[in-house]
Amino acid sequence: MVKAIVQHEHGGPDTMKWEDVTLGKPGPGQARVRHTAVGLNYIDVYFRTGLYPSPLPLTTGMEAAGVIEELGEGVTSFKVGDRVAYAGRPVGAYSEARIMPVDNLIVLPDSIDDTTAAAMMLQGMTTEYLLQRTFHVKQGDTILFHAAAGGVGLFACQWAKHIGATVIGTVGSEEKAELAKAHGCTHTILYREEDFHKKVMEITDGKGVPVVYDSIGKDTFEKSLDCLRPRGLMVSFGNSSGPVTGVDLGILGAKGALYVTRPSLMVYNATRPDLEKSAADLMKLVASGAIKVTINQTYPLSEARKAHEDLEARKTTGSTVFTV
């Protein structure tokens, strides 16, 4: 038996219970991984609430680091004792140990400790595909990134600075503005006090930006479109304020023949080669110091309820890690 956070119904943080669960043996192509650290991400809230449907009982969580304890039949690419990390489906990371498909695992180099790995895989590889594949950010580009002091936001500010791009970031407080600036954000906009569309147009001399990265959703969607230059790309990769629904596609033409995409890490890293390259690109920048992983909150895994409450109340910045 191992302990895990289990939900028997979708809903608020109070639906998450710390319970004993039975863990079987790994089958062909699988490994039993004992977790040493687990990452918290906003997508965990979507699974918890049922916005992203998942069968019950549910153990959520999509990111962790740990050690391989046992391998299933036919696995030759890993060995017992390997330090590994992962990010993505299947959900179930909020547990002391679990069975995982080995195709989802990445062996960790000695230069990256388990806590850092648990804080960087999902947010870091999300940043990789957003900036390198969804829209190829180049030196000299100016981009708008919402929630710049959040987990993905701090990775994106650093990665974009490394590329040589200028980041305009929206934040919720002066404290978060300073944090974003310390991680490479050039211009910060306090969205509660300022009209971010007006500020973006001022910063860009009325031209707008070629791409907007938005994990907020319905509260920022339409005004974000107004920040784009003609034929610009709106990248809607989250919905912390609620999902974007009922969009009239005609507004894309009226606002400048715009593009909109709703990408996901699971699709971009669906193949083993894509996953390995994404992880390698991330680890290279972390190992070089170009990206520093900022862990600003830690909680025991048994206190996942409190962590979710703080996350939804926008009390967290950077990355959050559960200790196991």
Automatic annotation (TrEMBL):
Alphabetized PROSITE patterns for the sequence: QOR_ZETA_CRYSTAL
Domain Enoyl reductase (ER): 11-322
Keywords: NADP, Oxidoreductase
GO cellular component: cytosol
Entry's Gene Ontology molecular function annotations: mRNA 3'-UTR AU-rich region binding; NADPH binding; quinone reductase (NADPH) activity; zinc ion binding
Domain of life: Bacteria
Enzyme Commission designation: 1.6.5.5
Record-linked Pfam families: ADH_N, ADH_zinc_N
Alphabetized NCBIfam families for the sequence: PRK10754.1 (NF008024)
PANTHER family membership: QUINONE OXIDOREDUCTASE PIG3-RELATED, QUINONE OXIDOREDUCTASE-RELATED
This protein's name: NADPH:quinone reductase
Organism: Sneathiella chungangensis
